Fold these 4 entries.
Entry 1:
Amino acid sequence: MSNATSAHSVVEPSATTKRIAGIIVVLYAIVTMVPLAWIFMTSFKSPPDSISYPPKLVFTPTLEGYCNLFTTRTRQTPEYIQSLGPPQSTCDEITRSRNMVIAGPSNYWPRFTNSMVIAFGSTFLAVFLGTLAAYGFSRFRVPLADDLLFFILSTRMMPPIAVAIPIYLMYRELGLSDTALGMILLYTAVNVSLAVWLLKGFIDEIPREYEEAAMIDGYTRLQAFRKVVLPQATTGIAATAIFCLIFAWNEYAFAVLLTSGSAQTAPPFIPTIIGEGGMDWPAVAAGTTIFLVPILVFTILLRKQLLRGITFGAVRK
Amino acid sequence: MAEVTLTDISKAFGETQALSNVNLTVRDGEFVVLLGPTGSGKTTTLRLIAGLEKPDAGRVSIAGRDVVSEAPASRDVAFVFQQYSLYPHLTVYENLAFPLRSPARRLPETEIDARVREVAKMVRIDHKLENRSTKLSGGEMQRVAIGRALVRKPAIYLMDEPLSSLDAKLRGELRLELKRIQNEIGSTLLYVTHDQVEAMTMADRIGILAGGRLVQIGTPREIYSNPANLHVAARLGQPHINLIPEGLLPGGSAPTGTKTIGARTEHLEIVRSGQGNAEIDWIEHLGDQNHLHIKVGQHKLVTLADPYLAIGRGDRIDLKLRNPLYFDAGGQRLT
Ligand SMILES: Nc1ncnc2c1ncn2[C@@H]1O[C@H](COP(=O)(O)OP(=O)(O)O)[C@@H](O)[C@H]1O
Ligand SMILES: [Mg+2]
């Protein structure tokens, strides 16, 4: 691919076209960023500011939302609060100014940890199984391969809610309701079809001569797979992992239905954060903001692979 | 090094009969070239020997041992592929060391290092050992690919058109190098190509493949001067052999049943004369030599001529045959 462009190039879009395209992209980016910016701002507002109308664009930032997210609090009399020693932390101070004291940690952190375990666990499993299955479909003459591939894809054709009730009943029988293992298995099952399809495309593009050369040189098929195929499939694996992770991380419907206690993930937990007299919007916004961080970090780490990945191999090499 | 024998090998892919009844022996230390057009079954032959395909019928033996049921890894062959010769995620050094690092061999690193450097020197790539293999020119890549086969001392080297993707100059250079290396190490080598020059210059023996059959095998001289049929005759010689009907030109003595006469440059005698049986239609100047395009009636012939031959377009000449090749109606050679 050359960077040289001539003024009258046939394939290169004209300057005007490029400018218009640029403007559209920027506008679209702004539109999609507004909700994120809104949430981020709200997380630093005080509860009254967060529900004031018209909405405040200029406000005094406070950590109250983050404090409320991570703690549970009880109301106390001013006399009692006076009788306490000096505040232990910023949060302590903020809480006392509302005539309350910190009673203990909230459930946010355990729920967040559940999300991490379930999302990364299921992503790992889906990509692992997907890679092996895709390799099999790509390299061997699998009987009824086309039908099997269609069948695998068809598991994604219905909305999750359509199978929610049977899965709910099944999980209750098996004792998998509200367990991390149950959620990992479920998300793996949903994601593995995507993983097989995406990865088959990537592996199809790796010439089989590479493995054949390795096998002639004294490697077994499995060793050739590890030494030759895997290193060349990293782009595809990274892209697939991101897609799987995003799904598992954001999944709401199954999570609401199948988890309530110890295995509950962050998405069903966040909307249940209630302050005194209604929703604690800054805390909800703080929970959402922190919830976005892992995906953001993961995506940035794999940005290069993802960019090449979503063009599905078109610019490999 | 060892002798490799194919006995009555047949192989079909669905409807396509890729190989039919191929019998071939590559002797210990011999350089055999299989020459044939695309689709004639060259790659399939190599893949069968390497164990990447299973024959429908027939036997493959390496050093006297029947290997048909053996996995590629245990057959002790080295393969240079036509394409995709290097691992793109590895450096030149790692590519060369890859076969030696296989679990089947388990050589100590010092020995691997010595061998890699020795071979790198042999294929003249020792100055680029730390380069990524994707950062090499086509010629360098192919040299590394050949080097990756040479680091091992297998029973036989199998090479699938290793030079076909290169430009003419590089091809010429590497052809010489490969022959030199083969002489040095005295290896058994089966090389396939569709390039007659490669076959003629490198081979101890040439096998002509056509439509999945081994039509003829012999030394380059034999194949060139004693082709078994029209097809073989047409594979070799530059310019292309002239195929003319019997009786068109005087000279020679056609045996009964002759239908077609094959006349290469050395079979044509040109005498300049005022009103000969032929006319110069066109002259291509190639520098060191000229291609004469000659018209005899409506038949057109091409032959080589000395650039100093004082002859011009439109000149009439006398064209005579001198010991040409005779073929019957079925294209078989008559003697
Ligand atoms: N894996 C395959 N599947 C189907 N047909 C094949 C396969 N490999 C080779 N063939 C067919 O077998 C014939 C010989 O192929 P090949 O050995 O590759 O020829 P060459 O190397 O001389 O060009 C061709 O007609 C080709 O299309
Ligand atoms: Mg071929």
Entry 2:
Amino acid sequence: MNPAESAGPDTQWMIRFDKVVKRYGDLTVLDELDFHVRPRERVTLIGPSGSGKTTILRLLMTLERITSGTIEVGGEYLSHTRRGDKLVPADEKHLRRVRKRIGMVFQQFNLFPNMNVLRNITEAPVRALGRPRAEAEAKARELLDMVGLGEKALEHPTRLSGGQQQRVAIARALAMEPEILLLDEVTSALDPELVAGVQDLLRDIASRGELTILCVTHEMQFAQDISDRVLMFDKGQIVEDGPPEKIFTEPEEQRTRDFLQAILKA
Amino acid sequence: MNWDWEWTREFSVELFTTGLKVTAQITVFGAIVAFIFGLLLALLRRSKILWVSTAARWFIQFVRSTPLLVQLFFLFYVLPTIPPNIKLSALTAGILGLGVHYACYTAEVYRAGIDGVPPGQFEAATALNLPQVRTWTSVILPQALRRSLPALGNVLVAIFKESPQLSIITVLDVIGTAQELGSERFRYLEPLTVAGLFFLVLAIPASIMIRRLERRLEY
Ligand SMILES: Nc1ncnc2c1ncn2[C@@H]1O[C@H](COP(=O)(O)OP(=O)(O)OP(=O)(O)O)[C@@H](O)[C@H]1O
Ligand SMILES: [Mg+2]
């Protein structure tokens, strides 16, 4: 079906994937993927390596371009705009507007090593949202207190532990006041003893229920704590979709059972 | 052949007042041209507009594949004879020639520096919705330049060492002056040795400092 013929944006959904195809050369990672996420829903994506979880988050963050199909965010097309009755690839201006609604935390933190912690957090609010610096700094300090790093505002990120860096990255993403937060294995690069601190912070953020969250994780307890819904992926398709208690204790699909078995053994 | 100390003392003054000034000018201004124009070339090379990046690549390739001497000749002797008959002073032509020549090396230095910035930095900047220009000025270039500093130091030393080539277009630096002095008496041992030592004395500590810098600059 030509995407232009579909019903068009729908505000009942925060995120809507419609027949999304993503290919890298000959490799089809997502094949006509459909799924919807409601506003403030907290969704965990699980599935074996290579099943396309990261790809989904990267498409949403506009770090990758979609091959075909459409993605809507908050009732707006993400990487298309309507011209007449056709959908055409969106320009940078459109992307910048939709991107404002989305924040992402990366596995490797990706803090800017050439700026101190405070500057890492204020740079985007000042440069992308045009906030006055004083206001941005006040907000950043609040966020730093929230993530338990009020003392570290003027430190350089490289002087912080991995767990502290990741908490700064979370504060940095929240400083942009996104509606959607994307979390891609945010604790898997951390030393084991630092995982709990970051997870506690995210539990706290998720429990406020203000954000729509898409989270990729292999930590089943954590997934259960922060999400209302789990999507099990395999080969770019959704295998199973349900509440965490159900998926983690009595999954219906054999592939989900196999995957959970494999995780437990690891 | 005996070393003439008397004469050495005499000419050293001239060597280091007139010659040194020219060498310093060539090195400093040549490096400024090389560093700024090189950055411009590096950015043009990354342009998404195909003809811009192709033109930049060809220019770099062309300049790197022809001898500096020919480029200097061209700027000083040929350029004034073809329309629009641009006539540069010997020093200006020399600084421009040397600067542009090394800009084509510096462009590669910057390119390596930019390539060395982890892709995650671009991705974080995109995720934070930083405008493109900001992404470059606040995030990518500061990290890329920092990575490039030691190699830029090496370019500076190279420009310093190549500055005597400008005597081919009548610019007399330390070496050129030494040669001139030598030709007055048909005796080159003292002036050329002193001039050569001067380069050695400056270039070696510079290289050592660059190596120190390399180690210190890791984040
Ligand atoms: N830039 C790229 N170029 C080519 N192939 C890619 C690229 N990025 C991802 N892929 C491929 O796409 C597939 C899906 O990758 P993706 O990173 O989305 O998987 P994932 O579910 O996040 O896996 P993991 O659990 O290992 O993180 C993989 O086969 C991967 O090799
Ligand atoms: Mg992944």
Entry 3:
Amino acid sequence: MRNASPLPPSCAAWANDFDEWRAQARRLLHAGVPPASVTWHDGNDGHDDLFSSLELPPTLPGSTPAAIRIGRDQLTLLGNAARYRADGHDQPRWPLLYRVLWRWARGDAAAMHPADRDGRVLHQRWHAVKREAHHMHAFLRFHRRDEARGERYVAWFEPAHDVLDLAAEHFADRMGGSRWIIATPHGGVGWDGSALDYRAPCPAAWTEEARTAAERANADEEHDLWRTYFVSTFNPARLNHRVMTQHMPQRFWRHLSEGDLIPELEARARHGGQRLAQESSVGRRKGKALPDARTTLSQPSPDDEG
Amino acid sequence: MELIDKLSILADAAKYDASCASSGAPKRSSRGKTGLGSSNGMGICHSFTPDGRCVSLLKVLLTNFCLFDCQYCVNRRSSNVPRARFTPEEVVRLTLSFYRRNTISGLFLSSGIIRSSDYTMEQLIQVARLLRETHQFRGYIHLKAIPEADPRLLEEAGRYADRLSANIELPTLTGLKTLAPEKELDTIHSAMSHMRQRIDAANDDAERDAKRLPRSANPKRMAPRYAPGGQSTQMIVGADATDDRTILQSAQHLYRDFRLKRVYYSAFSPIPERPAGLPQAAPPLLREHRLYQADFLIRGYGFRAEELLNAPGNLDLEIDPKLAWALAHRDDFPVDLNRAEPAMIARVPGIGLRSVQRLVDLRRLRRIRYQDLVALRCRLETLRPFVVTQDYRPTDAQRDSSRLRQSLTQPQPAQMALW
Ligand code: SF4
């Protein structure tokens, strides 16, 4: 058994992103280096490149590098779990991924199953990443800028995980020929109508422009129409704070032009508005009952008065 | 009247339609093209109002003038509400503006009946046509199908819309007769049947094209799609005395006979100038919630309405319908997760469809242990009496159902009386 051979001397590996990790992991696996013998360094942690070269120990006698086969689903799982930004008490991503890959390569197929102790973490991370990409598709807001070259849209967003590229693809499909930029604390991306332009770090001018737009809800006057819509489509008789915050966590409200309306609408609903589904300002307008057309056929039809 | 005032009135008038889904559309992209918009089958909720409901589409009425006098409706002709009417261009302008700012994924357009059903339907189609043809809009469009309109118009609507819906609102003949005298259940059903035939035919064509034509085929030669997101409908809950069993049987029938994608349930919300005979009570939200759960069990888990409610009446408000069914069928439990058919595992309360799939995958690799249910985040307190794993058997399997029920009933926040 392989385990019977003496442990190789420990080695250090460094990766900045998933592709780099994959290249390193492949070599380590071929060299038969077990997870416990690798110290991984993550570009995200702000280390300098002291460890930028991978020092492989000499191949162990008796260990035959076998071809590693990994399906597309497994690769997707690993790649997307790697987008998760681990914080303080989470385990760092590269050692986790390598341990799973190591187990998988040795025939332990359960390593990537959601009920496994490692697989479970991967699936939870992938789930969190998917959710955050979805948040970005949903809650990002563009603000219009009119320029000599025509209109352009800018957005500021603070994603909790590395999903900027997923969002960029989504918005390139969605916005067609319109030009836009998205600025985030970890980088930015622009679209000129035909190609994506990634920048890391985010250019200061982009950050400045996007943050300013996001912080002033009325910087783009069309957001007034949106706010009106938001108020009217709300049904005060169904007030449900818990379900709303569950789906739209409070951290997003700050950069939504309707965000500041939420507490106000809730307060109004609690103080009487809940009696009716109708928005109170609509109720205060002058109403109009219509004649029964069947008895007043000669009357002008009601829509002519709209 | 200013556009902003019209919006305020016509969004308020449209909120009684529960649907705001933007899912089920085919993949479309505007990358490198003129025009705007995409869809990928997945819906997006761009915001949530404080009622916890998803805002995915611009949901407005073209006008809330209406010739009809449906008693449950805020826009009925006898109701003294402010009235307004958008021009088709105004709706287009709002849709595109909101869409560019990423506050919506499309439009859900409905309308009061003005002049005639045909005229109203033509107006709705006109908006969709402007969006699709003049502005090359590839986002989501849901149009209300006016059942009384000429079938030719429903034909046309389906070529622009991702989804069409004709609302049943009240599932019984008597309900319609008393509360919506101008509507006919037969007319609604025949509109649904017409749409079903067109949707089925378009799906068959699309399947054939997908098999026969190479990917590079000229899209113009492909079969024109017809409402690829299918059709849906809505039933009001609590406006009249109809019970849950009738509602669910009606839904089951709609799914089977017209292959509806979704049936929505809308707890009746109090409206201004309530006509006599309609409740002035808070909307029955918990009841609505139980109906959605039961509906999901019918669509996704293979339950029949009659299994969930074997006699006339309403669903249990205290416990969810799956748990209620399990408690009434103790002989079928506990279920051995290492042996049972997937369909039976799906009937265990506390285990959802995704976990069923994962358990089935896992037991191909090794035996299932109790710890796996913890890792899969199943609802342990609920499922405990109903499962057997390699290392676990329920101890309270012998306890009688009413005591079990008591121990499983968490104190529910009662439906609050609001005033
Ligand atoms: S037809 Fe009936 S439900 Fe529709 S808007 Fe008119 S009154 Fe309301």
Entry 4:
Amino acid sequence: MFSWKEIPIGAIVTAPGSAKEYRTGDWRSQRPEWDLAKCIKCGLCYIYCPDASIGWKQDDGYPWWDEYHCKGCGICANECWTKAIHMVEETE
Amino acid sequence: MAKKVGTEVSFAAAEAIKLANADVIAAYPITPQTHIVEKLSEYVADGDLDAEYICVESEHSAMSACCGSSATGARTFTATAGQGLELMHEVLTIPASSRLPMVAAICNRALSGPLSVWGDHSDMMGVRDTGWVQIVAENGQEVHDLLISAFKIAEHKDVMFPVMVHMDGFHLTHVIESIIIMDQEEVDKFLPPFNYDHKLDPDSPVSVGTYGPPHIYPEIKKAQEVALTNSKETIKKIWKEWGDMFGRHYNPVETYKSDDAETILVTMGSFSETATLAIDKMRAEGKKVGLIRLRLWRPFPFAELRDAAKSADNMVVLDRAISYGGPAGPLCSEIRSAFYQMKKRPQVVSFIGGLGGRDIAPEEFEEMITKGVEIAKNGSENEYEMLGVRE
Amino acid sequence: MDKYGLYVPKLAPRKEYFAPGHRACVGCGEMLAVRQVCKALGRETIVINSTGCIEIVSSLFPQTTWEVPWMHTLFENAAAVASGVESAIKVMQRKGKYRDKKVNILAMGGDGATADIGLQALSGAFERGHDLLYVCFDNEAYMNTGIQRSSSTPYGAVTTTSPTGKKSIGQQTQKKNLPAIAVAHNIDYVATASPAYPFDLMDKVKKGVNTKGPAYIQVFSPCPTGWRSPGELSVALARLVVETGVFPLFEVVKGKYKMSMEFEKLRSIKDYMKPQGRFRHLTEDDIDTIQARVIEEYNKLKEKAYGQ
Ligand SMILES: Cc1ncc(C[n+]2csc(CCOP(=O)(O)OP(=O)(O)O)c2C)c(N)n1
Ligand code: SF4
Ligand code: SF4
Ligand code: SF4
Ligand SMILES: [Mg+2]
């Protein structure tokens, strides 16, 4: 924790998006798992994730999961049309 | 060249804002501030001042718009008084904590109720702890000069705080005085353009006004407090620059015949001029009295005050505000604490007067000093005396 | 969804301007809505945020979720602060002191900040005609302070200040019609949107911000914590609320109402209400009353769109 002398003027934050460092993935009690055979690469899971934790891979277009930030809400699994995602309990 | 003109003080205030070339003015009308903002909207309407004048729907929004404007890097001004300042109150802590420079002319007015449009210092005392620099003017020339220099203070890299310039409602705002109005070239030489490092700009995104839980809040507050306290030196430097350039000198604490005074009267604002008449008369009678006038209310000039009152056995403090149920007027409380730690400390006596626009005549100042000395010697059962209130 | 095509999600701008790492509850529909709004606006944007869930979860010092310039001051004044930003940019561009490029100005707040405490500042900004977009993220209560009712809470919903009791059904008043209030200011663009329809939402955000002068969008924002609904249903509820006609999607362009989405038959409001704890206490009769009112309001809206 830093000293008062290190507080930037006006406590203004000049590092955009720095909250990315915070691991919200630790909150998770369940995680999405993909059955890529069912995936039609539509991107719906990507557009519906409240935590911007799904992208897609440039090479093959399949979803990419950000396990560092995903909170395990299950929206992606619920919204996937082809049921390519299902939620499983986090074990540890 | 600067020229001397007879003008209403409010207009000299508006002229100062025009000379400072304010970019954004957001204000809401309230007596006795109206003449300032009316004049400014005329300047904008006539194209004499290239500014955005935001006719907000309340003082709360006035100060909010000023925060947005300053954060975007614009030179920003507002003016208000009394109830308007009260309505702004919630917003005032924002530019102080987020360090958003701006200047506000406060035409000090009593607070309701009963409703009063007349002057006293209740409004400025109510916002004392919001973290602004607070400067108090005595006459029209000071209003003009201090407003211009307030922009330089506010926007200085070592300050970066919002600044209020206080002027007594009616007693100062509405009088006609002979005032030297600055010349544009002179002002441009004195006042550099505002260049804000952290302005809201998509090319360098900042987050302003973040959330501070207990593990960080006190550090942020200490940083703010130290910066405000330290700003005093820069304020003095900027006033000295003004004095060197234009020959009118301003100090955090002004003194009048106080060098060897045994009893010192302390005032703030426009009543100080009347008080000097009483001092002159008493001096002529051989009494060792003097006057201290505080120009800088925040950050409080402790060292300068102690130094100015070295010789005093008694200090008689006039407040134009009540701290209901409290120990003294707010100015007096501050002065008492300034001396409490000192080995040799004067007796400090509190008087409250001039409330809601009530005048104080020179004789009353004289009576106050005499009575103050007596109380200093014999004590009183009252925490403070109310001046000129009918029994 | 077919209306918008199945593969369009990938056409949305990829960059996130409301980054992950925010501290919102699991499955927060409000943050999903913010994310979509920010995607639509893109880089050239300044965000002015009021106090509430969005501000708290995104700005824990010394970190920030925001990838665009962002400012928060107070609860009730985002529209006024944004007025100051807009005016400052206008004058400084005129004076050559600010980048000479259009900057989107987004003022935003929750339903409490917008419909209640900040309504005056909002009205002032609309009336003065500032060139900005105001988005209200409507989760139908003061969530940040612990789920108290607002004037945007629907009739019958339980909140911590509209509890059920012998003499109370929960919220006893009808939801304030904020879009109509915005329309009454004669501003050129007003719309409602839902994050379940991201392309409709993003399209409206773009239209709103490209409207000269003020624009207003009310975005339905499911709150699993406040509504006692399962987090995984946030998007489903944001869709059901539209399909039941409880929160119809429409636009009002220069005063002309236009439905954004039509359904041959509205779904029963039970489908929408059942998963939500805040409605669980309602009797069949209560639900019938609410259903009747939803139909009535929906028809009034359609009349505005087609009636003239
Ligand atoms: C003047 C003032 N009054 C009350 C509060 C407390 N407060 C902070 S956020 C909030 C509710 C926010 O509700 P809303 O705008 O709907 O946003 P939400 O949290 O639901 O997203 C309240 C009551 C405050 N910060 N300031
Ligand atoms: S929503 Fe389902 S089908 Fe579409 S990309 Fe995601 S996993 Fe694949
Ligand atoms: S479970 Fe929720 S947070 Fe995780 S990837 Fe899916 S939608 Fe995003
Ligand atoms: S309380 Fe509701 S709106 Fe607030 S963060 Fe949690 S889910 Fe989102
Ligand atoms: Mg809300």
